[in-house]
Write a structure and sequence with these properties.
The chain is of the alpha+beta class. Helices cover about 45% and strands about 15% of the residues. The protein has a single domain, classed as Cytochrome-c3 Hydrogenase, chain B (Orthogonal Bundle).
Amino acid sequence: MSRPLMQHLEVPVPDGEGERYSLRMGPQHPATHGVLRVDLELDGETILACMPQVGYLHRGIEKLAESRTYAQGLILTDRLDYIAAMANNVGYCVAVERLLSISVPLRAKYIRTMVAEMSRICSHLLWLATHALDIGAMTVFLYCFREREILLDLFEELCGARLTFSYPRIGGVRQDVTAGFISELQRFLDIFPSKMEEYETLIDTNRIWLKRTVGVGKVTGEEALALGLTGACLRGSGIDYDIRKHQPYDAYGLVDFEVPLGRDGDIYARYRCRMEELHQSARIIQQCIDQLPPGPIVGPDAPDLVMPAKASPRIAAGATTYGAGLIKLIRDRGPYLAGDIYVATEVPKGELGFYFISDGSSRPYRMHIRSPSFIHIGAMAAIAKGGLVADLIANIGSLDIVLGESDR
């Protein structure tokens, strides 16, 4: 017999200590941002203990990678944080390239930096939309999806997909950007600052928003480090750590941008950090457009894609046309050097790390993923304790979690 989704269990307590009971929230609950279950121990509406439970969405991505070549494993990373699949793709490619010592042309580095920041804007817009909706702001939800749709259309023009892209390649990118794509992206950058002003006008000083976010879910810098927080969750507590700035990859060392920091470590500080990151992402994309160099988009030592002899030149050059009996084969390339490596990149939710163990074959002996959502869910117990149930909803939104990369 299946257990109910939510339980109300009376727990006897001594007189004068309030009404203590247990509550199971989720895994089907609109405010848990996926199939997250949270077991709460409450005194009235005050949280005495918070125990997050994950595992409802496990797909076995790490195990699946062991039976695929490094190139074939790229598609698995789309299914991690599916809100920012392009950033996952870039992180995976950077890790494999360092493991296998594969070079990347400068033009491809700029393109990957550009699409990764587009992915960051898409992710932050969805975060702001759902976070505001959780707290009761409906209009912001509609506004954010308006601009996000423009970027999704651009992704579709670039690679034919809107959610799971597999556009970056080990050693470069799948295909070059076009003049039309750059023109449409520039048009987006021209209007985006004014759209940001609309979001901030609606909620930045709204008294209901401030009441729900200022002083709620506070985490000091020391606590954030001890909990393993990264991304805006760490920087909102005043810790200056951004992998793009401190350990640059792709073209991040060639562009100028600032790392927004908070001071109070509360929900409002995390919100402001992500809002400033939207401005910085637009700034990075503009520099990538202005500085985009000519040249190849795939390195000479990248894993080969072997097409059937009858494939047309357009398909053989890398076009994404499938069907009619066309089979895409990926040649096992090797032998590779044996060893292990950990490589991290800055995705919208924080530090995404890949740990590889190579036995010298064309497939990883072991791949482990350090996903920011999994770490942030674990920190929820400390952040929520002592707050109200309503504050837990706001805290989950401020941590910006996706269960796809937690239950990997």
